[in-house]
Amino acid sequence: MVDVESDGQIPGDYSMISLGAVIVDEALDKTFYGRLKPISEQWQPEALAVSGHTREETLQFDDPKEVMQDFAKWIKENSKGRPVFISDNNGFDWMFVCWYFHHFLKENPFGHSSQNLGSMYKGLIKDTFKNFKHLRKTKHTHHPVDDAKGNAEALLTMKKELGLKISLK
After folding, report:
1. How far apart are CA 166 and CA 146, in angstroms?
2. Where are the beta strands (DSSP E) in the chain?
3. What is the CATH number for 21?
4. Does a structural domain hold residue 45?
């Protein structure tokens, strides 16, 4: 489960400023957290404000290439087979993670696809007007590890209590 915070709507023009991930298993204790220095002079104060960081703080964050290398290593060490990228809003989170992997490392360990947690839930309960967010236990704080963990908790509930057929190995 992956979550991203950024300082604007699209990668390249704007920057991913933090990245969180958790391996979805019963313990939810294998996490990754990276804070990335901006790659662009452009940024939107209202987008950045969601993360709780200032522009000055983000300018002190880590080199994006190093963070993506560390993330790729973490994925490899904690996954069996091809890892699956799942997020609450995969249209947004995937766009940044995929762009950063290809831009900095020339490859994406997740391949070419991602899964949307909200869509899984809607299909599972057969209602496109419902959302899964009530299944989270960890508060949604806009810290990407907290948010990824809450979404992982929701996925585990969907599997255990609602019968979602998914392999978490």
Report:
1. 22
2. 2-6, 16-22, 31-35, 85-87, 114-116
3. 3.30.420.10
4. yes
Q: Domain range holding 13?
A: 2-162
Residue 167 lies in a domain: no
Q: Does 112 participate in catalysis according to the annotation?
A: no
Question: Structurally, how many domains does the chain consist of?
Answer: 1
User: From the candidates 53, 102, 142, 143, which is the catalytic residue?
Assistant: 142
- The pLDDT tens digits along the chain (169 residues) read 999 999 999 999 999 999 999 999 999 999 999 999 999 999 999 999 999 999 999 999 999 999 999 999 999 999 988 899 999 999 999 999 999 999 999 999 999 999 999 999 999 999 999 999 999 999 999 999 999 999 999 999 999 999 999 988 6
The angle formed by the CA atoms of residues 60, 48 and 75, to the nearest 5 degrees, is 70
Residue 140 lies in a domain: yes
Cα–chain center distance at 42: 22
Q: Structure pTM?
A: 0.96
